[in-house]
Amino acid sequence: MRIPRSLGLLARRTFIMLLVSGTLAFPTQNIPRELDTSKSPPTKRQFNSSLDGPELSYNYFAAIGDSYAAGLGAGHVMDRNCKRYNQSYANLINGDPRLGDQDEVGRRFDNLACAGATIRDVLEKQISWLDDGVDAMTITTGGNDVGFGAIVDSCIFGFGRTPCEQTMQTARTYIRTALPVTLDRLLKIASAKLTPGTGRIYITGYAQFFNEATTQCDSVSIALFGRKKLLDQSHRARYNELIRYVNAEIAHAAGRAGPQVIFVDYDWYFGACDGRLCEADVFEPDPNRPNLLIFERKGNDVPLDPPAMMGKRNFLASLTKRIRIWWLSDSELRVFHPRSNGQRLIANVVLSHMQAQAALFRGLDAAPLSTHDVCPA
């Protein structure tokens, strides 16, 4: 995902080291505050175990979006220009046995996701390169448009050109006014690329990064300069509220777009799998604990077993929007992006939705999504 140029040099520090500030309270109507306790907790079995359900038959699979979709930092780099990594959820889906071997079935896979991409970039430099007849398309986008980088600089790290309150008010206004319209346009144009009748778009939201119910993080700060800003419960709650607000707008846009667009809400699983920062009995920073699903600073990735294939370089991918943040390494840029286990979780939740759609097409009963095994082993 890209930090807009207008935000300045320091605002580009990372994609989504997000706000933890008490200066903004978002409206909470229609935005769930707690985990849905009606769902059974996911069991903790092998990540890539085959799930029961129909096999998925796609001739043309496409992945577009930002650094979450590109898999920044997860696994091994495939394309340094766009920060695409082989353990991205889209690449994991393409290599999953439920889709069959790509070469054997002759499936086309266009992975055009690119770190730094705004919704406009996705429209102009990703969707525009896709051919018609896409059977399944995954999308993650919208976070950059909100301006997370500027919020991080002003509200967490303690520096930035714009005061925290003003930066957050700008984000709030954008989410409320511009984001719905922009998402509607995105999904309308993307839908035109689908196979008529059977093609589907699977658009994801983002994960809340904090458990806001615990207290042991109340004295923790990740501020780099200026006044110390603590990750106390109030700040974590307001941060999480922002993510829920963005996710709600994405979900509403998917509903407006029609049955060919499915919103994939994996956020619940990040909490149910104890994968966030400040989980119970975790004393931060603890960047290498096995259940952690997102990168912290100075943390390592989690190897998958078996690892994802490196995949094939796509000519179209070399033409998509590029991010050039040469003064920061990917080990810094990946902070607060999903680790490989987080990408696998997202892949399995998307796959469960894909299988539910395949079951509907074939007149079969789809297994409840909450019964799928997605947590780390």
Automatic annotation (TrEMBL):
Q: Where is the SGNH hydrolase-type esterase domain?
A: 63-280
One record GO biological process:
lipid metabolic process
The record's section on SUPFAM superfamilies has:
SGNH hydrolase
Q: Which UniProt keywords apply?
A: Signal
Signal peptide range: 1-25
Query: What Gene Ontology molecular-function terms does this entry list?
Result: hydrolase activity, acting on ester bonds
> Is Signal among the key words of this record?
yes
The protein in question is named: SGNH hydrolase-type esterase domain-containing protein
What species is this protein from? Amorphotheca resinae ATCC 22711
